[in-house]
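Support request from a user on the community tier.

User writes: "When I paste my structure tokens into the form, the page sometimes reloads and wipes my input. The last time it worked, I copied everything first. Here is what I submitted, just in case something in the input itself triggers the reload:"
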């Protein structure tokens, strides 16, 4: 189990007798653990008599929940309208190529990068745009993406 049982118990006890406790409890768990591990979700089912399917259903329905840890660096590619019409799909493909990940993957095997497509980064006049951690990269081309990620790997 990623989190100590004492920490899980503290989070569970905070919500034990509250109506509608599951989502806030899962949010607190994710904040403490960085993601929702199988062991932690299983522990909730044991302590609160909630079905695993219910917890997993909530975790997979809401995009705010993660079932695996994030990479050291988070790459967000904007898929908003301005970015879309400016080539966001090509930028996303360039990121995947530079990271050597498939369409089904969102993280590099070494855990260095996590790739996320987001609805909007709020930089429409700079489209297409991506962010790596808290740095925005604008007016991207496939070539720029490749060199940006290569520089990050140094």
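"...and here is what came back when it finally went through:"
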């Amino acid at each position: 189990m990623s989190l100590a049982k004492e920490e899980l118990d503290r989070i569970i006890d905070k919500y034990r007798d509250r109506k509608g406790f599951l989502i806030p409890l899962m949010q607190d768990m994710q904040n403490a653990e960085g993601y929702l591990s199988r062991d932690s979700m299983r522990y909730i089912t044991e302590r609160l008599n909630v079905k695993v399917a219910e917890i997993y259903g909530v975790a997979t329905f809401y995009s705010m929940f993660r079932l695996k840890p994030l990479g050291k660096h988070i790459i967000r590619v904007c898929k908003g309208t301005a970015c879309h019409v400016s080539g966001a799909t090509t930028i996303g493909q360039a990121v995947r190529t530079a990271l050597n990940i498939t369409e089904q993957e969102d993280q590099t095997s070494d855990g260095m990068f996590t790739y996320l497509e987001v609805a909007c980064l709020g930089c429409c006049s700079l489209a297409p745009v991506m962010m790596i951690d808290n740095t925005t990269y604008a007016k991207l081309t496939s070539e720029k993406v490749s060199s940006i990620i290569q520089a990050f790997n140094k």
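Agent notes: The reload is a front-end session timeout and is unrelated to the input. The mean pLDDT is 91. The radius of gyration is 19 Å. Escalated to web team.
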